[in-house]
Amino acid sequence: MSAYAPSNTIADKVLRRIRPLRNKREIAVNLDVPLVSISFDDFPVTAITHGSDIMEQYGWRGTFYTSAGLEGIDNHHGPHFTRDQLTALQKRGHEIAGHTLSHIDCSTLSETEVVAQIHKNKTMLQEMGITQTVDGFAYPFGAASAPLKKLLGEKFDAIRGVADGVHKTSADLNELKACGVYSSTIDSVIARIKALPVAPAWLILFTHDICDAPSAWGCTPAEFKRILDAVASTRADVLPVREAVHFLRDRHDQ
Fold this sequence. Notes:
CATH architecture: Alpha-Beta Barrel
CATH topology: TIM Barrel
Distance between the termini: 46 Å
CATH superfamily: Glycoside hydrolase/deacetylase
Strand content: 15-25%
CATH class: Alpha Beta
Number of helices: 8
Helix content: 25-40%
Structural class: alpha/beta
Largest sheet: 6 strands, parallel
Number of strands: 12
Number of domains: 1
């Protein structure tokens, strides 16, 4: 998979600016203590060996946005998951969520092609042994559009983007904000985490490879451990994205 760059025409920049205001599906966020979700995209094997395996030492579980077509490949993120690793994650309580089958930019496809990519991805995940409902999704590359938000909002319970931010009073389930955990962002992410107890909010983190020589979209094991220690210091509730949504709905209904 080659490095991705979004279109930067003036029209596309304008559409990206106004997209968060369109086709929203909001859920209330009213927290007494911070809520954190940790997620992994695509995903390379190191997201397990230096990611979820370490999270489990804290008693936490994460969300894995999975493109089934990446099974066993080796790219700039390193070797990717096997089906045995995928089903082992499920058995240990992690959420398996969707990307697209081929990790393709949905905004470049017709609606029919997007639906086909999603359906094939879900089917292949089931064939690999995933029995949980795949009701979460992340836009590959964070590439979305207002029509995509409406289309996919009818097919998934919660959809994550890559727009940087936290959810303080509400969250858009058609494009959840998130913070990328990269070597270049570690200090700023930790500062954001440490601010959570003062103004409790829902923070979603995501990364890719976790290794000693990470890609620009990953971090080192030591850096990831710093992130986890910072989260632990806040005494936040740490839940996969799906469980976090259920938690927020339960609070709203009380």
